[in-house]
Design brief:
The protein contains 11 helices and 12 strands. It has 347 residues and is of the alpha/beta class.
């Protein structure tokens, strides 16, 4: 980061701080059960990408961490004026996201590669019964990403939020590693499935603890934190692949593991959903470790089912869709118990 960029970023952050403080307090109040005086809008800074301000992935974040951080801070400086938006919360977030949703796959030794800017992984060749606990502390991807987080903390000086890698969830990673073989095992060889999911859960938990040791709690966010910002101390898991399992199998195989991962954090956290998951609403309503659900794409169209089926104290983050519009969301909720993942000026 050049001296000019550093000076500009510092100036813009000073201007943004009052707005950020107001937005953060409003979301914190929502988690305490207080009713907002107006709808809450959360939309991470646009910087030539789909959402959030993640810096660019050129140069490579693990191979050239200093250069990558230079790029990130320059990008932030260029877009810093947007951060002072009084209507929409636009937090600066440094995303430590090597390999995207395949980060945990890489720690298990699965072949991971980029193709046209998208990370892909291949299934492990071993059988489910042969899966062993990986030595993540010796894994170069783990070590490099943890060092990048340390560097981001030092260079940012606590001025911006830092998000740990996509740590996903047991069912997503299990399917990444074994494909449909895991789903078959859940039905035909449940002991094997339980064992694999337990190993995956422990690896995710170890990563949560490791990044918690490096990133101070007051600036630590979870993946895609720019549009899923939650108050400090709240965890996050993905739930994408839960749409592939029945309510019974979720409760038997996955709900205890998801709850255990959320319990790694001091306060109840959030689950991300993007498909057809309404069969699990009862399980999530009964999960004290879960304070919020985050809906986008297909899941957002089922917003009414979530709003009526979850506990009254559970918050819903939602990205509006063509069918579930901002106007419809506000008509259902009056802006209560909901975080709109869009800009206020998109209405």
């Amino acid at each position: 980061m050049s001296l000019r960029d550093a000076s500009r970023l510092k100036d813009m952050l000073q201007r943004a701080a009052p707005a950020w403080s107001v937005h953060a307090r409003r979301i914190e109040a929502l988690y305490r059960g207080e009713a907002p005086d107006r709808p809450i809008y959360l939309f991470g800074l646009m910087a030539g990408r789909s959402h959030g301000l993640w810096g660019t992935n050129e140069p490579d974040m693990l191979g050239e961490p200093e250069a990558w951080l230079d790029d990130v801070f320059a990008d932030m400086a260029a877009h810093a004026p947007d951060a002072s938006d009084p209507q929409t919360f636009r937090p600066f977030v440094i995303e430590i996201d090597p390999f995207g949703t395949h980060y945990i796959d890489a720690l298990f030794g699965a072949p991971v590669r980029y193709h046209e800017g998208q990370a892909w992984s291949e299934e492990l060749p071993c059988e489910l019964a042969d899966l062993q606990m990986p030595d993540i502390e010796a894994n170069p991807v783990f070590r490099a990403s943890l060092e990048l987080a340390r560097m981001a903390v030092e260079r940012s000086g606590g001025a911006v939020w830092i998000a740990n890698p996509v740590l996903s969830c047991p069912i997503n990673i299990g399917i990444n590693l074994f494909g449909g073989r895991l789903l078959e095992a859940m039905v035909e060889r449940p002991a094997e499935a339980h064992r694999v999911l337990a190993i995956v859960t422990e690896v995710i938990a170890r990563c949560m603890r490791a990044f918690a040791d490096v990133i101070p709690p007051e600036i630590r966010l979870n993946s895609v934190g720019a549009v899923r910002w939650a108050p400090p101390g709240r965890g996050f898991i993905d739930g994408c692949a839960t749409h592939l399992v029945s309510a019974r199998h979720y409760r038997e195989f996955l709900a205890p593991l998801d709850a255990a991962l959320l319990a790694e954090y001091p306060l109840p956290g959030m689950i991300h959903l993007c498909g057809a998951h309404t069969q699990h609403i009862d399980a999530w309503r009964d999960m004290p470790e879960l304070a919020a659900v985050q809906l986008n794409d297909r899941a957002a169209d089922d917003f009414e089912a979530y709003r009526s089926g979850l506990r009254h104290d559970q918050i819903v983050y939602i990205t509006p869709t063509a069918d579930m519009t901002i106007e419809r969301i506000l008509a259902i909720t009056g802006g209560q118990g909901v975080v709109l993942q869009c800009a206020a000026d998109t209405r």
